[in-house]
Design brief:
Blueprint: E1 4-7, E2 13-17, H1 19-27, E3 31-35, E4 40-43, E5 54-59, E6 64-73, E7 76-86, H2 89-108, H3 129-148, E8 151-157, H4 163-167, H5 180-193, E9 208-212, E10 227-231, H6 232-238, H7 243-246, H8 251-261, H9 266-283, E11 289-292, H10 294-304, H11 310-315, E12 324-325, E13 333-337, E14 363-364, E15 367-368, E16 372-377, E17 384-391, E18 397-401, E19 410-414, E20 418-422, E21 427-430
Parallel strand pairs: 1-4, 5-8, 7-12, 7-13, 8-11
Antiparallel strand pairs: 1-2, 3-4, 5-6, 6-7, 9-10, 13-21, 14-15, 16-17, 16-20, 17-18, 18-19
């Protein structure tokens, strides 16, 4: 079980406690709920207390970043809390493209529009909004966890994918020779690209080998777009056969493999672009930072026999990740970035003309869209208690999406049946199901 964050009377972080200890403090009146997600309690009388140094470890990724709070003990490190932060970089990019399309359309049809800006020079180190979001989100959560736990140090995995090598493994001469890191990068990239399973039969949790889609005996190259993963039986059966002949009885899988092989390297490029910006953002906290390579992280995880997960990779970052204890039953908190809503005043039709009235107020009857609430339905089809994010309506009937318990049913109810649990912070928290 994940530990519960504890704050003293003056909101100073203390050592996280077990859930049973937190329940005892709450039932006895010695503590109150400070936050629902992540669950944090605040002591009513106690001030200060002895703390042990905690290290916050981070495994950055293009779509998901793993985090883990570990404590150094006599027998190595022990994970106390873990979380997986899901970014919304792709959503930001889609929104910017949609806005650009509407503005360009208004210019072409000579409607009222914002004049196009002149040529602008990009500043050094500029990150696009979808990339900057990843850096800001991770930095935001580092600051949050430092407020809720006595963090004394940080550990960051500095991932670097050599996209030039990934595209052309045969590069040589004046362009630099092939090294040991290249082999790791290609294998790790292929594992992520093909979902850690055999491309030909879909087998998972088995040893996988690198296979050439177009065999080298028939003119195939070592480019990463021609590489895939296969289990040993499939690799031996395929041999030097063209993939079209090997999968002639499974055209759907053949089509999927050809489409997946052309997947661009945008995820690797996103990690490369943000790794030093994230390092500088964490350096600004003033805490000591330990860095580790992706190869060291994978070596630590595989040597200890842990399965692949973003938060487990975070726990295995750096030298201190060589001996990490993960308590049985510990599950990471899933955190999804959803933003704080849109700043668009009104919606447009396909011609770029406003089709709705401008927004009036954000908060209605004490509630705002995105707040975490509890709904009590005394009767009807959806009778029961629900916890999730609320969408406010000016008429006073609100909608709730039950995100906490995994039910996606949209329920509409009058405002007096809702109870505010936590103000919206731009994230949705999903509790993992028991194993």
């Amino acid at each position: 079980m994940r530990r519960v964050f504890v704050l003293d009377k003056k909101q100073k972080p203390l050592m996280p406690c077990q859930p049973a200890r937190a329940r005892h403090l709450l039932s006895s009146g010695k503590a109150a709920v400070f936050r629902r997600e992540p669950f944090t309690i605040i002591l009513q009388e106690r001030e200060y207390g002895d703390t042990q140094p905690l290290e916050l470890k981070i495994d950055p990724g293009s779509k998901t970043t793993g985090t883990a709070l570990v404590i150094q003990g006599k027998n190595g490190c022990k994970v106390l809390w873990a979380g997986e932060l899901h970014h919304r970089g792709l959503e930001i990019k889609a929104s910017l493209l949609a806005r650009n399309k509407i503005r360009r359309q208004r210019r072409n049809i000579h409607c009222r529009y914002r004049p196009q800006r002149g040529k602008r020079k990009r500043s050094k180190g500029l990150l696009m909004p979808s990339l900057r979001h990843r850096v800001l989100t991770v930095g935001n959560w580092v600051n949050r966890l430092c407020r809720w736990a006595p963090v004394s140090g940080l550990a960051l995995e500095l991932v670097r994918f050599d996209t030039q090598k990934l595209q052309n493994p045969e590069i040589e001469g004046v362009e630099y020779p092939r090294g040991e890191l290249f082999g790791y990068e290609v294998r790790e990239y292929l594992l992520e690209k093909w979902g850690r399973k055999c491309a030909y039969c879909g087998a998972e949790h088995v040893p996988l080998e690198i296979d050439h889609i177009a065999p080298r005996a028939r003119g195939g190259t070592d480019r990463v777009s021609n590489l895939t993963l296969a289990c040993r039986p499939c690799n031996e059966r395929k041999g030097a056969l063209p993939v079209e002949e090997f999968l002639k009885n499974d055209p759907e899988r053949l089509k999927a493999i050809k489409a997946q092989a052309k997947t661009p390297l945008k995820d690797a490029a996103a990690v490369n672009s943000t790794r030093w910006a994230l390092f500088e953002a964490l350096k600004a906290t003033g805490l000591p930072i330990e860095t580790g390579s992706g190869g060291r992280t994978k070596f630590n995880r595989t040597r200890q026999g842990y399965p692949k997960a973003h938060w487990i990779d975070a726990a295995c970052v750096g030298e201190s990740g060589a001996d990490v204890q993960i308590p049985q039953g510990l599950r990471a908190l899933t955190i999804r970035a959803i933003g704080h809503g849109s700043r668009q005043m009104c919606l447009m039709d396909k011609y770029g003309t406003p089709r709705t009235k401008p927004k009036k107020v954000k908060r209605v009857l004490g509630f705002q869209s995105g707040d975490l609430v509890r709904l009590v339905q005394p009767k009807g089809k959806h009778k029961g208690v629900y916890v999730g994010k609320v969408s406010v309506r000016e008429r006073g009937a609100f909608d709730i999406q039950d995100c906490i318990n995994g039910e996606r049913t949209k329920i509409t109810a009058p405002h007096h049946r809702f109870t505010l649990l936590q103000r919206g912070d731009g994230y949705v928290y999903e509790r993992p199901k028991p194993a």
